[in-house]
């Protein structure tokens, strides 16, 4: 026979998960009008797009395009695939602005662990990444707030670059996709923890997320110049940060729901995560030499 106490605990656990999920979704509506704006996501998107405009313009000028019309024409020619006559100039510009290049990192240019996540090759590259970031970042920022969104994005982006440094030493790498995979990983954990709030235990939602991840990694195996090591580094670190910092609400003694993963409760873990990321970078540099 089923133990009634076990059944009661299971029912209570399901109710707690459902309350946590609903609280996470509705918390956005309790904020002020300005606080509801996903400032972190918009600043990253606009800043990244502006930086791409600068690097694309300089790459076009490097091959002889100086008028506005010539620059736009040159950029449009490279919108999907970089033309052979533009490849060297674009690589030079991206390296100047901080692309991941192992020998330069080994020379002490450590800013190249973070700057690549804000750099992109062409219009297709930046367009797809920023559309994905808007679709996912706006929603996640409503769940976690500005600071946690930026923390997850930056840490997973840095770890994706470190992973690329370690496993793809010959690749000059740029792009926000590693950090976006980090957001996907964090959201997967949020769904996994709250799976009892979904029909069929969240099975179909989790399968859909796994399909999206698998398709994107599969594309990286088919298309050239796609750094899947960075994607995997961002995804796996996103799992960890999602477990630590995605919302999880629990009732206090007065039955008021509180997010126990807020940074004011988890700042020591956030500090350890940052220190752990720095240690990972040091190990990669040391073992890479």
UniProtKB/TrEMBL annotation:
It is found in: Membrane. Keywords: Membrane, Transmembrane, Transmembrane helix. GO terms for molecular function: serine-type endopeptidase activity. InterPro entries: Peptidase_S54_rhomboid_dom, Rhomboid-like_sf, Rhomboid_protease_S54. The chain crosses the membrane at residues 37-60, 113-140, 147-168, 174-193, 200-223, 229-249, 269-288. It holds the Pfam family Rhomboid. Residues 107-246 form the Peptidase S54 rhomboid domain. It is a multi-pass membrane protein. Its main location: membrane. GO terms for cellular component: membrane. This is Peptidase S54 rhomboid domain-containing protein.
């Amino acid at each position: 026979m089923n133990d009634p106490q076990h059944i009661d605990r299971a029912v209570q656990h399901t109710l707690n998960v459902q309350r946590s999920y609903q609280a996470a979704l509705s918390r956005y509506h309790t904020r002020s009008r300005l606080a509801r704006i996903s400032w972190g996501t918009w600043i990253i998107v606009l800043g990244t797009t502006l930086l791409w405009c600068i690097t694309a313009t300089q790459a076009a000028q490097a091959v002889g395009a100086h008028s506005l019309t010539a620059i736009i024409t040159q950029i449009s020619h490279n919108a999907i695939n970089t033309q052979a006559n533009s490849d060297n100039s674009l690589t030079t510009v991206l390296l100047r602005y901080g692309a991941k290049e192992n020998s330069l990192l080994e020379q002490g240019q450590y800013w190249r662990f973070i700057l690549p996540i804000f750099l992109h090759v062409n219009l297709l590259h930046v367009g797809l990444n920023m559309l994905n970031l808007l679709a996912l970042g706006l929603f996640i920022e409503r769940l976690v707030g500005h600071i946690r969104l930026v923390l997850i994005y930056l840490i997973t982006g840095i770890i994706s670059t470190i992973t690329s440094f370690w496993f793809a030493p010959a690749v000059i790498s740029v792009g926000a996709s590693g950090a976006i995979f980090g957001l996907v990983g964090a959201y997967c954990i949020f769904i996994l923890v709250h799976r009892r709030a979904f029909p069929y235990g969240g099975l179909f939602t989790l399968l859909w997320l796994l399909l999206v991840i698998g398709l994107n990694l599969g594309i990286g195996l088919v298309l050239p110049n796609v750094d899947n090591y960075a994607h995997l580094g961002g995804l796996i670190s996103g799992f960890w940060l999602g477990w630590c910092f995605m919302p999880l609400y629990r009732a206090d003694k007065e039955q008021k729901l509180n997010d126990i993963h807020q940074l004011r409760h988890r700042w020591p873990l956030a500090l350890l995560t940052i220190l752990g990321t720095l240690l990972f970078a040091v190990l990669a540099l040391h073992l890479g030499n």
